[in-house]
Design a protein that fits this description.
single chain, 141 residues, mainly alpha, 7 helices, 74% helix, elongated
Length: 141
Amino acid sequence: MKLLRYIFPVGDEDKKVSALLLASRVIFGLLLARHGLEKLMNFSTMSAQFPDPLGVGGDVSLALGIFGELVCSLAFVFGLLSRLAVIPMMFTMLVAFVTVHGGSVADGELAFLYLVVFALLFIAGPGKYSVDGWIGRKFVR
């Protein structure tokens, strides 16, 4: 009977799915935050040579990258305004994939992987183990 419940789960999918969403947010959010923190710590040296694919200047492009990779990813880890936070993250990865890596999966595999994962998590939402989930349970009925 336990084997059948494992193969054909009934009733506990919500907890498992929310746990997987939490793990995905934490893992991918912290991995991306590391890139943003590196950019922040080296802002003065990186800004001179940072790519400017949007035509706003290297400093602004770098600041936007830091916002998407560090600020938004930390909000995403906690599940705070998750769907809003993941939009700049996806945009940053799209710009990196298309402009910096020329749209080549061979060259921009990491940016492409982040983009796909973040798009899937945007669709799935943060799950119940998130600040958004808590706010929804507490205030939205």
